[in-house]
Amino acid sequence: MGAAMTTWGYGLWAFCAGVLIPVMAALNARLGRSIGSPGWATALLCAVALAASVLFAIASSGAPPVAQLSRAPPTQLLAGLVMSFYVLSATYLAPRFGLAPTILLVVVAQIVTSATVSHFGWLGAPRQPIDLIKAAGIVLMIAGVGLVQWRRTAA
Length: 155
Fold this sequence. Notes:
Blueprint: H1 2-35, H2 38-61, H3 66-71, H4 78-97, H5 99-120, H6 132-154
Helix pairs in contact: 1-2, 1-4, 2-4, 4-5, 5-6
């Protein structure tokens, strides 16, 4: 029962994070329009995120682990650039391309990329090979995005 509760808890947590991604994109797109700059809206969002992350880290782990930080390969810090690129992209695209198509394409890209990374075990991810069922699910997701976009342009 404990393992199932952990799985359900992690699933609920991931679901909540997913719910908040389009909310974040919409809020930051509005901020970008309000201040006239998607770049500055992204910078402000990242500054608030940094402050919240530092507070969480201090509350949960105490002082920064300086010795461990110095041993981390600099390439692992590239995730910060990835996050910034995503936030800037969502901030810029949501009011121009639409919130739903932006997020739908982001989700499809995440599914395809995460399945590929997991299939090969890249970047230290646990290896989870793509089987026929998983491949069919990926194709269905892509088809769903295509249908949503097709309906949007046909209307």
